[in-house]
Amino acid sequence: MIIKIILVALLIYMIVNLFMAMRIMMKGQTNGEPMSKFIGRRVLTSVIIVGLILLAFATGLITPNPRPY
Prior knowledge:
Elements: H1 2-27, H2 35-59
Helix pairs in contact: 1-2
């Protein structure tokens, strides 16, 4: 159960970074934080999510749904 909470939190963090990058892009000013910082965080978060899912499958913490037939 804790692994699912961690995955949801990471997904929310990734979406927040997406909207923060969009805000900078819409503002058009780059004298603050660069947009690539938030996009980089988003890419790193997605790599962590994929790694965590693969690790959870390998250890048996989460199991895929059974076949429908």
